[in-house]
Specification:
395 residues; 8-stranded mixed sheet; 3-stranded antiparallel sheet; 16 helices; 19% strand; binds flavin-adenine dinucleotide; binds iron/sulfur cluster
Amino acid sequence: MKDLQKVNNLCSGCTACKYACPQNCIEIQTNTEGFYQAFLNPNKCIECGICHRVCPMEKEIKKTIVSCFAAASEDVEVYCRSSSGGIFSLVAEEIIIEGGSVYGCAMDSNLVPHHKKISRKNQIEELRRSKYVQSDLRDCFSQIKKQLKEQEKILFVGTPCQVSGLYLYLGKKEYQNLYTIDIICHGTPSPQMFISNLRWIEKKHKKKLKEYEFRLKTEKSKETGKYCYRYVFEDDTIEDGVYYRDPFFNEFYDMTNLNECCYSCPYATENRPGDLTIGDYEWGKSHHAEFITFDEISCVLVNSNKGKAIFEKIKNIRRTETKLCYIEEKNANLLRPTNRPKYRTYIFEDISKLGYEQWAKAYFKSIRYFKKLRIFQPIIKMKIYLNKYVKEKRR
Ligand SMILES: Cc1cc2nc3c(=O)[nH]c(=O)nc-3n(C[C@H](O)[C@H](O)[C@H](O)COP(=O)(O)OP(=O)(O)OC[C@H]3O[C@@H](n4cnc5c(N)ncnc54)[C@H](O)[C@@H]3O)c2cc1C
Ligand code: SF4
Ligand code: SF4
Ligand code: SF4
C-alpha cells in the first residue's frame, strides 16, 4: 500500500468513505498498530471531498436524549448470556419478529470480530456480548443501503462512530425502516494485537482455541467481582481467568491499546447518534432497589421517537425510569473521552521490538502485573491509606 495515503489521521475505520467514494480509490487496511484504517490512492482521486463529508470523525450525527432507563432482561437465558442487562437481545428479537434483520458484531471461525447480518432468532447468540476489539465492518454499509431501498426493516448496533458513519454514508434521506443502537464506548483495541494474543494463548496451552469470551457471567466473575475471560479450546476444555491474567485484556482494562482516535472521541457526550444507547449500569441498583437480585443491569438512553417506539414494544423486560446524572456517576464516557495513559505511547513499539511472546513475558514480570494480584491488594490499599493520612496531617 505504498502509494496510498491516510484519509484521516484520526480514523476509526468505519468504512463510510470507502463506500461513498465515486472513484473507488479508498481501501481499508490495517495500519502499523494493527487497526483498520482508510487509505486512499491519490492517483485515482478527483478531490471531490465526499470522503470528508461522510467521515464521522469530522462531522457528527447527534440526537438529544428523551428519557433514561435502568433495565434488564427477565428472560433468564438471555440475561445470563449477555454482557450486562441483555437489552440488545430483546430489541434484536423484536426486530426479527417484525420481519427485519440485525447487524452487529460476531466472531468468525478464526475468532476475528466483524459485523454481520442475522435474520433468525437463533442467530442472536452470535452477536450477543461485547467483543472488546475494533470490529471489521466489511461491506455491511453497502449491504444496508441496498436493503433499506428494498424497504427491509434493519437494526444496526455498533460503536457511536460506526452508527454516525452509517447515517453519514446513507445521506440526507431519512429511512423510517432503519433502527440504530449505539453502545456507550470508551474505545476499541487493536485487532492485530488481539490475533497475536490468540496465537500466544494457543502456543502456551499447546492447543487451538475455538472460542474467546471477554465477559461471560461465570462463577469466576461472580466470585471475584471482576471482568473474567473464558477460553474454550478445540478439545472442549475451558479456562476461566481474571482479566489481568490475559495480557491483551489487561491492556484493554488499562486503556493502553485503544485506537488513537478514541482518546479524542467526538462521541464521548450526552448527545448520541443512535435511536437508543445501551451501556453498563451495575451501580444503578443502589438507586433502584427493584434490581437488587440482578448482578448486572443496563442503562438505556432513548434518543428519538423511533427509539421510544421500539423500546416500548419489547417484552420480558424489567425497566424503570432513571436519571442521567445517576448513569454518569460511573460512565465518564458520556461526558469526556478516555484519558490517554503514558504507556499508550510505547506499547505498540514495545510489541514490535520484542515480539508478542517476549512482550507478554515481560508483562508477567512487571510491577503493573504484581500490583493487580490479590495477595498484594491489602498492601496497595494500606499504601494509599498512608499517603492520604500523611497528606492530611501536612495540611
Ligand atoms: C469496545 C466496547 C467498549 C465499551 N465501553 C463501554 C463503556 O465504557 N461503558 C459502558 O457502559 N458500556 C460499554 N460497552 C458496552 C457494554 O460492554 C455492553 O455491551 C452494553 O452494556 C450492552 O449490554 P447488553 O447486555 O445489552 O448487550 P450484549 O449482548 O452485550 O450486546 C452487545 C452489543 O454490542 C455489539 N458489539 C459487541 N462488540 C462490539 C464491537 N467490538 N464493536 C461494535 N459493536 C459491538 C454486539 O453486536 C451487540 O449488539 C462497551 C462495549 C464495547 C464493545
Ligand atoms: S476526494 Fe473524492 S475521489 Fe478523492 S478519495 Fe475522497 S471521495 Fe474519493
Ligand atoms: S469515514 Fe470512517 S473509515 Fe473513512 S476516514 Fe473517516 S473514520 Fe476513517
Ligand atoms: S471511543 Fe469513540 S472513536 Fe473510539 S471506537 Fe468508541 S465511538 Fe469510536
